[in-house]
Design goal:
Strand content: 35-45%
Structural class: alpha+beta
Number of helices: 3
Order of helices and strands: EEEHEEEEHEEEEHE
Shape: globular
Helix content: 10-25%
Strand order of the largest sheet: 1-2-3-7-6-5
Length: 219
């Protein structure tokens, strides 16, 4: 970054196949990340600064220097050195070499495990500052009578995915699946989320991940 750079607050999509979408007050644009592995190491892991959403929820956000095509992500927590930041070079979008939906699934598997370890839920939904409440896919690990349970809920009902149940009544607005919470089952929430989102008439980088804090068992 150069002295005098103009920084704009942007909301971030998931990183899929090296591609990310940024939403700002002036609109949205898709970019290819020059070093996607470095960005993947911090995005969606509870490490990046967040912006508030309705209902006490949060999304990761960054600062963007459009002239320099540089994305700056501040860390969520301060250290003895203050607030650290990471910069990433963005380029004009390049057609992905890998299946974006498979990449989204891989991204969400890490998001799901990381969120569970922090006691947070996550929601996959359409991106942007004024995104609608539906469609959505919610995932969390919640306390059960005897053991923790991994829960995934979505609306509208996905049909013919080969993953979600197909016996849901036609007039039902949503559906859910659940099972004992293990590391594998928590990661598997990503498979259900990606399968549901593939029917939303949107690309994977049109989506956003929203986080929220689960209540403690004694609340």
């Amino acid at each position: 970054m150069e002295p005098g750079s103009t920084l704009t607050t942007v909301m971030l999509s998931p990183l899929v196949s090296g591609v990310i979408q940024l939403w700002s007050d002036s609109g949205a644009r898709v970019w290819t990340v020059a070093e996607p592995e470095a960005l993947a190491a911090v995005l969606g892991r509870g490490l990046v600064a967040r912006t508030s959403m309705p209902d006490n929820r949060f999304r990761e956000a960054g600062l963007f220097d459009e002239a320099g095509r540089t994305l700056l992500l501040q860390e969520r927590y301060t250290s003895e050195e203050g607030i650290r930041a990471h910069t990433f070079e963005l380029m004009d979008p390049i057609a992905p070499e890998t299946n974006p939906w498979n990449s989204l699934q891989d991204f969400l598997a890490e998001v799901s495990l990381s969120a569970a370890q922090r006691g947070e839920f996550w929601v996959l939904e359409l991106g942007g500052w004024d995104s609608p409440q539906s469609p959505y896919c919610f995932a969390a690990v919640v306390a059960g009578p005897e053991a923790a349970v991994s829960v995934v809920e979505t609306s509208p009902v996905p049909r013919g995915t080969g993953v979600w149940p197909d016996d849901v009544p036609a007039d039902q607005s949503g559906t859910s699946v659940s099972g004992p919470a293990t590391e594998d089952s928590v990661r598997t929430a990503s498979i259900f989320a990606a399968a549901a989102a593939s029917q939303w008439n949107a690309a994977p980088w049109d989506l956003a991940v929203t986080f929220g804090k689960l209540p403690s068992p004694d609340e």
